Amino acid sequence: MKTKIFSIIMVMAFFALSSAFYSQGADNSSIEALAEAKSTLRQKCSLTGCHSGKHPVANLNLETEKFPASVAGVPSREMPDFKVVDPGSPEKCYLIAKVKGESAILGKRMPIHRDPLTDENVRQIEEGIEGPSGAGVIFNSRLTGPSPAMGLSPRKGQDSAQALKPKRITRPAFWGTRLVNLPTTTTLGKEEFLFRVSHRFQPAVSSGWDSFFGFDGPAYILFSLGYGITDNITVTVGRSRLYQEWEFGADWAFLNQGEASSFPFSATLHAGGNVVTQDKPAGAQWSGRFRLTALLSLTYQLSDRLSFLVVPAFSSNTNFWEPGSEGTFALGIGGRFMVFDEISIIGEWVPPLAGYKDRYAGWGLGVEKKIGGHVFQFFATDSIGLTAAQYLPGGDLRLGDGNFRLGFNIFRTF
Fold this sequence. Notes:
This protein folds into two domains: 28-163, no CATH class; 193-413, Beta Barrel (Porin). The protein contains six helices and 13 strands. It has helices spanning 2-44, 94-100, 119-130, 135-144, 160-163, 388-391, and strands spanning 193-201, 219-228, 233-240, 245-255, 266-276, 290-301, 306-315, 328-340, 343-350, 352-355, 362-371, 374-381, 405-413. Strands 1-2-3-4-5-6-7-8-9-11-12-13 form a twelve-stranded antiparallel beta barrel.
């Protein structure tokens, strides 16, 4: 009798261990499938200027540490009736339809401007989504509480399902860190780099064929490099050909519109110092090479297409070539209207209110185009200034006389 009982216990133990081993093997297989899916999306889709960073295309972040939490159960922006990733019906995932290029999708097949994913790539993503360690477990945890990976927490009077709904505004107020000259509330994501080129033709367009409407004339150029220390803090260094001036700055985005009901706007503080390195003219008396700047960008975003900007700003020693130091206080205003997807009209007006002033208030009007990690701006302006200390006093051309010059900005995030 004892032998029979012992045999029964051994058989039960064998099946229990086998079941545990099989379950562990299945779980490991699921984890590996999810890891492969993340790797595929990182290499093919989670690229700078695409589905990564603070403002990913279509509000869809596919970075390794965000997937699948960023998309599980979230309605597609292109086709809200479908989920980007639908844990209950993986075959209905809009993400899978986009990478396969199915006829029912809107827009272009993912990844755009790159070779389509291979069948093996698609299989890896499908298995990563469908496995027990994939989107389903993430989604189920979000139904019972906010997901730490998403950073979501329902506001008072709002349940978890409401918190998962996409925001009405899904694009940033401004793509570039500059509108024309004025700094915007846009900062870099953590560990992102930004290379900026700002270019101003010196001759006015009214100079005509003699300078080919300004294009043949000399120009002033600024090169700048920025780095995101965190998602809200950016540091920059740049050099302008005008006055051979170096500009060092830091930007702190401390308010974001919509994150708190008491703050219906975004705010970024910009502070820095400038050093003029051009040679001092013989016998000249000037007030020194150093200037300090402080600007506060305030943005109100009415919709994805329409944003407004107000920038109170101050720079010291703006007329450094005079022995008596004098600064400039100005109040810049501007805005962006998106005419088509990623194509906008931009404009700004920067009147100096106190201190040293140039002949006329500074202004700029132009167009902006975003392509991947690039932002291109082409505009008319009356100022040759490139650093805050240079453009805050205003410009030297009077628009009423038909005088203005051309310029452009290029931003590249990587």
